[in-house]
Amino acid sequence: MTIKLHCFGESGNAYKAALALELAGLDWGPVFVDFFNGATRTAAFRALNAMGEVPVMEDGDLVLTQSGVIQDYVIEKTGKLGGASPEARREVWRWVLYDNQKVSGIAGPLRFQMNFLAKDKRDEAVIGFLKGRLASALGVLDTVLADRDWLVGRDVTCADLSCCGYLYYTEPFGFDRNEYPNVDAWLDRIAALPGWKHPYDLMPGRPSDRA
Amino acid sequence: MTIKLHCFGESGNAYKAALALELAGLDWGPVFVDFFNGATRTAAFRALNAMGEVPVMEDGDLVLTQSGVIQDYVIEKTGKLGGASPEARREVWRWVLYDNQKVSGIAGPLRFQMNFLAKDKRDEAVIGFLKGRLASALGVLDTVLADRDWLVGRDVTCADLSCCGYLYYTEPFGFDRNEYPNVDAWLDRIAALPGWKHPYDLMPGRPSDRA
């Protein structure tokens, strides 16, 4: 493979990069990061990414981190998924930032708290706080998607591939698709794209591996 | 003024955009958004920004939201604050994304919980959770800044202006500059830049206005 993506199945942030690489038709493959056994806290991983996070993309000597940066690289390299104009490209960035702060940025920690954190460490007040913030962000998405098929322009872009990062996971994290009908229909549109795969089918590692 | 920025002094996210506009030498002025009296929840504001957030920038007919998008516009318009190469520009984006998710994205809600939310609505578990996440992100910044003056390259960029968004506020939010000496020195470097202003001096609105 040409492009390596350091990732694991449970990471919706890694999924955003993996899905963009896959749907853009690039030759890439995953490198499994054993997050649940502390792989991102090792000196070796910190040397690769001081932020201590997946995804990390390697294309030859080029190393990129942050899913939005990797998505931007995919857009530059392929001309795909970035919108039809410079204005659309900027609008894609707007949604990628919103996602990082308000959608995936909340859904990730919330899903971790509710599913992957030791039960004795979970805190209902924290879970309630995060659920409230996520509901607010999903409400914005549902309102915006009421009159359009895609977040930016007339076709799928990295805006969609960013905001959907955590929304296909079935572990409970306070997201009921029935409560957000426009988000629900939009997720079905993304899932119907040729080559779409669920995060657990696109990247190695899933909860059942640790059962 | 040419450029209008809808903002208020307590918003570190708005400060990121205001500081970039100011340090790049653009002709701009603030439009006060009365956040604490619900201005961002009005239909009029939602029509301006469906995300219901400041900052919102207006330059003639162009309306941009998300501090990182406005910073990108400042870089495009002035050629300043974006780094010395396309690779540096991408690295700036990497830090802007990290800030939105892990630094300002946590410091903002944490500072709100500890200072602006009604006392009977504050939750110590939530505050503790957010403090832990912020400390982790500030630790990454402190480590990276150990061997460099600026986050990207040899001069200030929007990477610095994004990550510092909430870090000049003196209301308590679990951030003690003495615990992060490299962050402390970096904040002094930014504050020494010609034209730098504290958020309460750059934008209208501060807690004492509501006292």
What does this structure look like?
- The structure is a homodimer of 211-residue chains.
- Chain A is an alpha+beta fold.
- The first copy, chain A, folds into two domains: 3-80 and 196-206, Glutaredoxin (3-Layer(aba) Sandwich), CATH 3.40.30; 86-191, Up-down Bundle (Glutathione S-transferase Yfyf (Class Pi), Chain A, domain 2), CATH 1.20.1050.
- Chain A has helices at residues 12-23, 43-48, 67-78, 86-116, 124-144, 158-163, 181-191, 199-202; strands at 3-7, 28-32, 56-59, 62-65.
- In chain A, helix 1 packs parallel to helix 3 (67-78) and helix 4 (86-116) packs antiparallel against helix 5 (124-144).
- The two termini of chain A are 30 Å apart.
- Chains A and B meet through helix 3, helix 4 and helix 5 of A and helix 3, helix 4 and helix 5 of B.
Number of domains of chain A: 2
Number of helices of chain A: 8
Number of strands of chain A: 4
Q: What low-confidence regions of chain A span 5 or more consecutive residues with pLDDT below 50?
A: none
Strand content of chain A: 5-15%
What is the CA-CA span between the terminal residues of chain A?
Answer: 30 Å
Gross geometry of chain A: globular
Q: In order across it, which strands form the biggest sheet of chain A?
A: 2-1-3-4
Instruction: Specify Rg of chain A, calculated over alpha carbons.
Output: 17 Å
Helix content percent band of chain A: 40-55%
- Along the chain, the helix and strand elements of chain A come as EHEHEEHHHHHH
Mean pLDDT of chain A: 97
Helix/strand/pairing category of chain A: alpha+beta
| CATH topology title of the largest domain in chain A | Glutathione S-transferase Yfyf (Class Pi), Chain A, domain 2
User: What's the architecture of the largest domain in chain A, going by CATH?
Assistant: Up-down Bundle
Largest pleated sheet of chain A: 4 strands, mixed
**Largest chain-chain contact?**
A-B, 31 and 31 residues
Q: Which quaternary structure do these chains form?
A: homodimer
- Under CATH at level 1, the class of the largest domain in chain A stands as Mainly Alpha
InterPro entries (chains A, B): Glutathione-S-Trfase_C-like (IPR010987), Glutathione-S-Trfase_C_sf (IPR036282), Glutathione_S-Trfase (IPR040079), Glutathione_S-Trfase_N (IPR004045), GST_C (IPR004046), Thioredoxin-like_sf (IPR036249)
Pfam family, one (chains A, B): GST_N
GO molecular function (chains A, B): transferase activity
Family (chains A, B): Belongs to the GST superfamily.
